[in-house]
Amino acid sequence: MGNDVIIDEGWVCWDSKRNAPRLNCRKWRMRHDYWLAGSFEKRLVEELISAEFKIHYRLQDRNVLIHRAPNPSPRSMLTLEVFADGVRLGVVEYRIGEKWMIHPSGGLASLLNSLGAYSVEVESDHGRRLKGKKVKVVGDIDGLRWILLDLDKYVGVARVIDASKRIVKVKDVAPKGFKPLPATGIIQVVEANRSLLETAINEAVGFLKKTLENVMDGIAVSYSGGADSTASLVLSQEALGHARIKVVYVDTGMDLPGVKEYALRILDKLSLIPHVVSSGLDPFNEIASRGLPMRDNRWCTRILKLEPLRRFYREHNIRFVIDGSRSRESSGRAETPRIGRNPLIPEVTRILPIKWWSRLLVQLYIVNKGIELNPLYDEGFTRLGCILCPAMHPHELELSYTKNRYWFERLREATGLSINDVMMYLYGEKHN
Fold it and tell me: What's the burial of 211, exposed, middle or buried (CB within 10 Å: 0-12/13-18/19+)?
């Protein structure tokens, strides 16, 4: 870490007055990336809760915090810890062949109990320490997987083990009385974190100014239209001004629809000149000759992205490039130095102003600057790169297929590969 100042420490609590998560407040430890949920994620959690407990808990007009948690089993492809209304709601998990499922918490049970959700009583007194125990309940639990337990001053959530014998296993218990807080939005999250946000901005701007204080030209900002690169772009403009930076966008030929348009719209808003570069290659022909890009063979990055960038850097005498890589994105990026060389383009020094930021802090910075977040995040995408990317989670690839079927039809015509072939090659899973 060297002399880096890590302002976003990875702890979160809840500001009940604003109904908003607050950073650097020691209640919940965020070991991986965390962010405010978009519409897709909120709807997903709503639907899972409704399916299991037959009650509607509205999240669309609330601040919902998502934490990318470790996967609990080899079948898990994505695990998201969910927080709202000052409560840890539990975990939603995407498994190969099983799609999404929810593992509810006692806190969620208490919230749902206050909303009038169906609950049953335990047949005999087992005391307070029921967590992890199998118990027999009084009431109808046929057709249910999860059930709420009425435990006098407490409420529990239990997994149905044998409905005919009314046997359940208690997963968690919490005090009764948790209730949904008044609905608020992202502006309240910005206000709850105003001081920390200003400190983070000042540190990042100061870092860029100091790092490039004697450099008047040869500076590029790599801009992809995603939240991280948008934050780095605006910070670069704030620190260095318009004249010292060149903004480069790589059109790979298979960008998610809307990403390039968003990027150009933001650059126009910031009065920055875009330099759009491309390999000039047909992605379908490249896939036909090279095979699908895989997680351990991302030839697409080298050929369709880095080669055009390398030409641009050479033609414009670029010596420094600013980009939005963050440590919380992956273990590989965590090891990337804040100032260093990209092994694939070693002649250019890479600078990472938001290396230590969470995605939540990125979101707050962008909104605080009056810039819209890319609407694709609300559609369920976490990576705003290509229509087909080996770094996508399976559910994102399925989303991409659903929204871009014309592209996958062209892929099938050019290569013979169907969406099921792609899913099997990348994840060992068929598309349903």
Answer: middle
